[in-house]
Design a protein that fits this description.
The protein is of the alpha+beta class and 171 residues long. The chain is 24% helix and 23% strand. The strands form two sheets. A four-stranded mixed sheet has the order 4-3-5-6. It has a two-stranded antiparallel sheet with strand order 1-2. The longest helix has 21 residues.
Length: 171
């Protein structure tokens, strides 16, 4: 019958493959793992990109967000993740606050569309209120435009609140 093979290795994307197993038959399965852009402690090491001055997620970020969704779906012990949107200080404060909220909402909606339960996510836009770098340089503004996935509730003894976060710069 049909069986699902799941292979996991630290630093690589999880692989799922359905194979048909027939009695007394030998099947050799060759799997090629792709390097992960998300580590198992859920730290995102790539960027979420948006269309300029928009909350629309750029297509080049779909693979990354698919992987985030896959990990969240696979690790049901993670009960609540805050999706936080941040901007640089260019432009009006109110505009940046709304843009960051819209971006956080869009990322949350994307994850929900990939099977993550809505009750496990919430979204907050902080605008330019929590910079991590100077807004006086191009690089600093680039670093301040980001989406963070902060784990708030985790079922299990091995978790310390706020010890894990996914973090990525957004454009």
């Amino acid at each position: 019958g049909d069986h699902q093979v799941i292979v996991q290795a630290h630093g690589y994307r999880m692989l799922k493959e359905t194979v048909k197993i027939v009695a007394h038959d030998t099947e050799v399965l060759h799997l090629i793992a792709k390097e992960s852009k998300v580590t198992y402690d859920l730290e995102v090491i790539d960027k979420v990109f948006f269309k300029t001055n928009s909350h629309i997620i750029d297509e080049r970020s779909h693979t990354l967000l698919d992987e985030v969704a896959e990990i969240l779906n696979h690790h049901q012990r993670i009960e609540l993740v805050h999706v936080e949107g941040h901007t640089d200080s260019q432009g009006d404060d109110a505009y940046n606050k709304k843009l960051s909220q819209d971006r956080a909402d869009e990322v949350m909606g994307y994850l929900i569309s990939k099977g993550v339960a809505a009750g496990r996510l919430d979204a907050t836009g902080f605008g330019e209120e929590q910079p991590i770098d100077s807004n006086d340089t191009v690089e600093g503004r680039h670093n301040n435009r980001r989406v963070i996935f902060r784990i708030d509730k985790h079922h299990g003894d091995d978790y310390v609140q706020d010890s894990g976060e996914e973090k990525t710069t957004s454009e």
